[in-house]
Design brief:
Length: about 220
């Protein structure tokens, strides 16, 4: 029996901790539905496109957003606890730079040409590098190393990064997300029909996947 083919488009930003949580929960939902062949496609979103290319001091940036260290610490503590449940070792104390993620999204876009598995591997590597190791994922060398680890042609990435290749394509996709009404991430669009907003529990994602899997072909 052939497995039902299901496409899942994940609109996310690699500096969004909820997107990291959501990605882990999606993995678990997919693993719980072996009767479906799920292809995950990663779509760009920028939580803050105004961050300069060189990035900003993260502590000062977060203080500007949250207003106090106490509020930041409380948010981080909650995420660290949730992360442990999903196998994520959040290390917010190690993060020094709030990066602009345009180049990271260009890398993710290029990874799609090597297949969905490679693209997902790149996204995982970027999430882990930023949130578990404190790496600056706006740094070209970090992006090149992430590409290499995920199985991409690192030399090609090194050649493309200094150019404007695919900047317009990424911006167009981000604009399209806005036109679809997506104002926050993660957003999971399953089979082009079911939208799941936020880092929902595994059961919510699994339910949407099951609905898509149970639909007759051609619907």
């Amino acid at each position: 029996m052939n497995r039902k083919q299901i496409a899942v488009d994940v609109v996310s930003d690699v500096v969004c901790p909820w997107c990291f949580l959501g990605s882990k929960r999606l993995e678990r939902a997919i693993a719980a539905l072996p009767q479906a062949a799920v292809e995950v496609r990663w779509r760009p979103f920028q939580l803050d496109p105004t961050v300069p290319k060189a990035g900003l001091d993260r502590e000062a940036y977060m203080l500007g957003k949250f207003g106090s260290k106490e509020r930041i610490d409380a948010a981080h503590a909650r995420l660290e606890e949730m992360g442990r449940e999903d196998g994520i070792d959040f290390r917010f104390d190690a993060i020094r730079i709030a990066p602009n993620t345009l180049d990271a999204h260009r890398l993710i876009r290029w990874a799609a040409a090597a297949g969905a598995a490679v693209q997902t591997a790149v996204v995982r590597e970027l999430f882990s590098s930023y949130f578990e190791k404190g790496a600056d994922i706006g740094d070209p060398q970090v992006l090149i190393d992430s590409a290499r680890t995920a199985g991409m042609d690192a030399a090609q990435v090194e050649t493309l990064l200094p150019t404007d290749a695919d900047k317009d394509g990424v911006w167009q996709e981000i604009e399209m997300a806005g036109q679809l009404g997506i104002r926050g991430v993660p957003c999971f669009i399953i089979a082009g029909k079911y939208a799941v907003m936020g880092a929902q529990p595994v059961e919510v994602l699994l339910d949407a996947l099951k609905k898509a899997a149970e639909e007759p072909e051609g619907m």
